[in-house]
Every structure is written in structure tokens, then in C-alpha cells.
Amino acid sequence: MIKNILFDLGNVLLDQKTIDVSVYLSNLFNIPFNDSNIFYKKYEIDVEKGNISFEKLISLYKNKFNNKKPSNLLIDEYQKLYIKDIYGINYYLINFIKKASKKYSIYIMTNILSPHYNHWKEFNRDKYFKRIFRSYVDHFYKPEKKAYIFVLNELNSKPGECVLIDDLKANVQGAISAGLEGIVYKNNDQLFIDLEKIGVKI
After folding, report:
1. Is pTM beyond 0.85 here?
2. Residue 166: which of 1, 30, 12 has the closest Cα?
3. Model confidence over 92-106: pLDDT tens digits?
């Protein structure tokens, strides 16, 4: 029986374009996308896990591409690029969460960078979730199996008591491989149908 519902953030709780950090960094440093993508891939998992801070990533880019602009200004500009891709909150889903929280424990489990989360905080919606599991704070990376094991241990929960809702099929498959239920988010209507199939009703 499901007791815990884990939501991804990007493209689930937030309505937005597909996030591509390499694109933002390419625009930020005025470099070709391929150069940015190749360089970012070297550090992507470590940055998302918080083994390398976002500030350090910016410093690495500055050194690699010979950029002299102050890091704090670059970080501000990066966040503006990210925010341009945000349409807003999925309010219909937030309203569902408000009701569901009376019966289920609701969480966020997200691969995320610090400037992305800083923007989410401005919406002041964390109060609807019992805990926000953030990759760069809790040092995990979906779809690695140990990411889900970490969350299960933190919740003191059995895998079958949890469902992950994520827009990325690989992340859902990772959850399923760890014994959780998993739903690939497509839209709100489909989500509610899929939740009912596993017995989640409000």
C-alpha cells in the first residue's frame, strides 16, 4: 500500500521547457554548445551530487574559456537564463498535493542545481512537502539505485510503500529497479489515472 509519494520538480511541479544546463552555460560564456556540452559532461554527476559546488563549476568554466567576469555576476546571469525557461508552477498538481497530504506523506526528490532550487524557493511551496530531497544536498543522482535506497532509509519505509513521479523514464525505471512504484509524468490527467491504478486516491 502506498504511503509516500515522491515528486520530481522540473517538468512535473514546474511547467517549463526542457532544462539543459549545457545550453545555459553555452549562452552564459558565449561559447559553442558542443564545447559547453563536452566540458559540462565531465562534471555533471559530481555537480548534481554536490561533490562539486555550482560556484566551483562556474570557476572551472571561467578558467577553461578564459572569462574574467566576476563569478557572482555570472551566477546571477545563469539564474536569469534558467528562469526564462520557467512558465510557472503546476498549480493544479499543487492543489492535488494539498488534498493528498491529508492521507499520504508527500516529498520532492529531485536532481537539481543550487540556482534552480533557489528559484523554486521563491514560489514558497515547500510547506506542502514533508521533506525536499535535493541531489546536491543529499549527494544522490537519479537514476542510480543507491539514490532510492538512500531515500527509503531516510523515510524508514519499505519500497512498496513509495511511488516516484518523474518526467524522465530512466528515473522511473531506476525507482522500479529499487522496488518502488514509478509513474512517468506526461500530464495531470494521465497522472491521476496512473495513481488510481496503484491505489492512490484522495
Report:
1. yes
2. 12
3. 999 999 999 999 999
